[in-house]
Description:
Elements: E1 5-11, H1 18-26, E2 33-40, H2 46-56, E3 60-65, H3 70-80, E4 85-88, E5 94-95, H4 99-109, E6 114-125, E7 128-133, E8 143-147, H5 148-158, E9 165-168, H6 185-194, E10 198-211, H7 227-242, H8 247-267, H9 272-293, H10 300-310
Amino acid sequence: MNEKISIIIPVYQVEAYLPKCLNSVIRQTYKNLEIILIDDGSKDRCGRICDEYAKRDSRIRVIHKENAGVANARNDGIKYATGDFISFIDSDDWIAGDAYEILYQGLKKYGADCAVGGCVNVVERNGRCAVHRQRKAGHKPSAVCESSSQAMRRVLLNGSAVWNRLFKREVFDTIRFPSDRINDDEVVALHAYAECEKIVFLDKDTYFYRIRKNSITTSSFSLRKMDIYYNSMDNLAFVRKNRPELTECAEFKYYKAMLYCYMHLKGMKKSPESAMPLKRLKQDIKKNQLMAMKNPYLLRRYKMFMKLCSI
């Protein structure tokens, strides 16, 4: 275990959660780590906490910058990374003590370009956390190796994140996060899997994902979340060009994003800012209705909803 792993952690306004995250990283059983903390202009104590941890652990490097969003922070982390492997962690989450040992050994054992661990959802309610494991009790652990196209299919049909993964460094030689978008994980995950020959999915819990109020994921719909639609459109164009066999999967994602954004925009208070995207979505729903009816992945209720929206 002499190969270096670069761990990129964007940090912004999470002082209550940051120590738990950082403690879980510095206590890893896999020791050859480069821990890159990108303080994205936090106005709370995050910057000081990062500096305090850097004084205690020489593996930590802190970059302070003006706020520019998580995508830019991750891109800065990639730029500064010197490891043989790259991994991402969100600063309000934490990892198992042997997470990187598991991911590294899995990647090596199966000759993969990316290893993916199991995830535990931690739901925060009224100051308490409820743990929801994605694996069923009594389930026998196993590893599943998939080709590039198989893993990309997972992204398109089920969604994906970039955390809880260990990538070979060269996967990110040309890939960067779209700096003007949210919901960028699925775009990058799709492109990253396209650069891999083999991805191994390990049935061992390595990541604890905190679901909390006021995060980007759980916040109410806003015009900013139209990026979900724009990202699905970009992914569809990418798939048609590079993996045409996955076109129906990408179209499914595109139709769902289209309907999701349309439904929420219709429910918002009317404004000049929302009028144009709402009009565009209405046009695209009408334009794509006939093709959507033939999509084998789109559920019947979505097809019916698309018909109603076309009226």
